[in-house]
Amino acid sequence: MVSLIGYTKCKLDEKSRLVLPSRFLKQLDGDDAMEFVLKPNPDKPCLDLYPKSQWGIISSKLAQLDEFQPEVQDFLIHFLRGHQAVSTDKANRISIDPQLRNEISMGRDVTLVAILNMIQIWDTEAYENFTANKPRNFHEITKQALKNKKE
Prior knowledge:
By secondary structure, the chain is α+β, with helices and mostly antiparallel strands. 34% of the residues lie in helices and 26% in strands.
């Protein structure tokens, strides 16, 4: 299981490419440092970048769902919407589809945040706005989150 750590600010180039910082790549082995799945986050205005092995784990769990149930179909449509395979080039860059950028109003200044097994890619201004004020009920949110353990 990958457990990524880190936070950094970056800039997309004019061709919408992002250089993945070495601080993240050093934490990944083999194909995980070159092959990823990029998708819009279903709840936040950011993109989620999963190393290939981590996406495989998620994919296996999704494959266990009953895709004939309407609720499962709706979940899969929204969770998988816009997901795509991306690979690093020789300069450790990934291309970010302009349609995905437009969907979340992502400019060229971005913030990368490691969240356990993935990296979230935020427009820097959106990230700063989102994190500027900790929710007043953060203690309650924390307690509730810690009750929701994986099976």
